[in-house]
Amino acid sequence: MNTAQFTPAGTLTAEDLGRIHLIGVGGVGMSGLARLFLTRGLPVSGSELREWPSLAGMRALGGTIHMTHEPSNLDGVDTVVYSSAIPQDHVEMVEARRRGLRVLHRSEALAAAMTGRRTVAIAGTHGKTTTTSMVTMVLQQAGVDPSFVIGGEISEVGSGAHHGTGEHFVVEADESDRSFLIYRPYVSVITNIEADHLNTYGDLATLEAAFAEFARLTDPDGFIVTCADDPGGRRLAQTLRAEGRRVHTYGEAADADLRLSDVVSSAQGVRYLAEVDGRSLGEFRLPVPGRHMGLNSASAVLTAYLLGLPVEAAEAALAAFPGVRRRFERKGVADGVLVYDEYAYHPTSMTLAMRTLREVAGEGRLIVVFQPYRLYRTRDLQAEIAAALGLADELVLLEVFGPGELRQPGEGSAALVEAVPLPADRKVFVGSWEDAPVEVARRARPGDVVVTMGAPPISLMGDELLAALSARAGDAAGGAGGSAATAG
């Protein structure tokens, strides 16, 4: 079990960090933090081994990116920032300690950046990236210019971080390693609580206790928002209210403080009516499909309402919400096949995503290219993951992405593919990355929807799938007049 401890937020500010170096700066969480520091005018460097798309933007902002990991990268550095994915024996971690540099976990560095701001922290097993993005856009629409750091990029903004002039700081709070317990939010939003990250917590009860501890860190003058439709969120609300804390709920449940009704989801988007304590707030519309998207947006509406912001700002922001990269992100069309990318890897979020994709596919088939995330999760939730994958028409399964994990006999995707309730000819485990586009090109037909789903590396495959489908079309046309891929 992961028992890492982090230093609670204090008086340390971002400016106190001096010259900042981030190990593994291309990752979604680290790149957002780097961008925040850069837009704040702080000197930033980072190290990477892969040319992630975010690196070009960091260079444009003045960041120094080293495409190696080595001790000399720390020359002139005052503070080294690492994530939970970086082992303690990493060459730059070892060198930082040898030199006596300040070494901070990503969450500790982020807490320093939040000093002096009113933090709105969004946590939960599912939906926190999308919800954080929605809250951010609602606050922006209201004209309060929040700072934010999100574990993904808002598609229209093209960034997961910004240094704003307003008093609010919106942040996605990660429970996976307990690091969310260092924050001291003014507002805490908890979208849902389900069994996950049990390598850290051991069991659901311990995980729920950690979420309760997170909620109790909320400023007494602030408030807590939970989902009345989620059993874990409902239990948490009952516990906190019994302690006299200010808790507000949202959902379709009859006793939710903000209640959704007449929810309609289609390929064109989702809409619903909302009311607070029996008072109508009107209709809200999102251009992205999925009933769960409507539920996520309701937490943003409730948060804005409780902060005293105009309901009209929430309506306008959600009506223009472009989605989040890697959350139901449309990559393009090639040879009549529509390709999406989706971050889901927990069985609940996978099921929600595939049901939404079926709305988009209509009469077409749904082909899932899945890369499981972490061996322990794939092992412990194998039956649930297999059931979710069984909602697909065709499955192409890659090996589990589990950096730093030791594979035991019988663990991994070879065992998972056998458990998926699909006929043998409609599922395949591919041993290499290069085999996946070949399988998709062989299986997909015009009118089908293909989604890459799961661990972070799979997000890089969408363009390769489009290229393989376009090449197939060119071959079919004899090299002339083939259908080209259309991005976006």
UniProtKB/TrEMBL annotation:
Residues 19-116 form the Mur ligase N-terminal catalytic domain. It is found in: Cytoplasm. Residues 122-303 form the Mur ligase central domain. The keyword Iron-sulfur does not apply. The keyword Ribonucleoprotein does not apply. GO terms for cellular component: cytoplasm. It comes from the Bacteria. It catalyses: UDP-N-acetyl-alpha-D-muramate + L-alanine + ATP = UDP-N-acetyl-alpha-D-muramoyl-L-alanine + ADP + phosphate + H(+). Keywords: ATP-binding, Cell cycle, Cell division, Cell shape, Cell wall biogenesis/degradation, Cytoplasm, Ligase, Nucleotide-binding, Peptidoglycan synthesis. It is an enzyme of class 6 (ligase). Pathway: Cell wall biogenesis; peptidoglycan biosynthesis. Its main location: cytoplasm. One of its GO terms (molecular function) is ATP binding. Residues 326-455 form the Mur ligase C-terminal domain. InterPro entries: Mur-like_cat_sf, Mur_ligase_C, Mur_ligase_C_dom_sf, Mur_ligase_cen, Mur_ligase_N, MurCDEF_pg_biosynth, UDP-N-AcMur_Ala_ligase_MurC. ATP binds at G124, T125, H126, G127, K128, T129, T130. One of its GO terms (biological process) is peptidoglycan biosynthetic process. This is UDP-N-acetylmuramate--L-alanine ligase. It comes from Micromonospora haikouensis. The lineage of its organism: Bacteria, Bacillati, Actinomycetota, Actinomycetes, Micromonosporales. The gene is murC.
